[in-house]
Amino acid sequence: MKKDIHPQYYNDTEVRCACGNKFKVGSTKPDLDVEICYKCHPFYTGKEKFIGIAGKVEKFKARRAKAAAKPKTAKKPRVKKQKK
């Protein structure tokens, strides 16, 4: 291996989750902050939990409702320009 090109490896990196869980892993960063871990992830807990930015689903539903309520207008036919 080449010398002085590899990042430093930390054996006891502390990982802190948004749910309050803390655990240690090996990493190239001294400490990590994560949003979701194995204690709060829906796949591991079996509980459904919406993860993401609040309001995205509501905004999408509102856009769909607005589009459905708006009457469709007929498009104008395209007219080719004549060459001179």
UniProtKB/TrEMBL annotation:
Q: How is the cofactor bound?
A: Binds 1 zinc ion per subunit.
Tell me the gene name.
Answer: rpmE
GO CC, one annotated term: ribonucleoprotein complex
Q: What's its job? A: Binds the 23S rRNA.
Q: Which residues bind Zn(2+)?
A: C17, C19, C37, C40
> Which keywords does the record carry?
Metal-binding, Ribonucleoprotein, Ribosomal protein, RNA-binding, rRNA-binding, Zinc
Q: How does it assemble?
A: Part of the 50S ribosomal subunit.
Classification from the root reads: Bacteria, Candidatus Harrisoniibacteriota
Q: Identify the species of origin.
A: Candidatus Harrisonbacteria bacterium RIFCSPLOWO2_01_FULL_44_18
InterPro entries from the xrefs? Ribosomal_bL28/bL31-like_sf (IPR034704), Ribosomal_bL31 (IPR002150), Ribosomal_bL31_A (IPR027491), Ribosomal_bL31_sf (IPR042105)
Q: Which HAMAP family match?
A: Ribosomal_bL31_1 (MF_00501)
Q: Which GO terms describe its molecular function?
A: metal ion binding; rRNA binding; structural constituent of ribosome
- Kindly provide the name given to this protein in its UniProt entry: Large ribosomal subunit protein bL31
Q: Which family does it belong to?
A: Belongs to the bacterial ribosomal protein bL31 family. Type A subfamily.
Keyword presence, Repeat: no
One of the protein's GO biological processes: translation
Cofactor(s), by name: Zn(2+)
- Stretch list, region Disordered: 64-84
Task: State the PROSITE patterns in the record.
Answer: RIBOSOMAL_L31
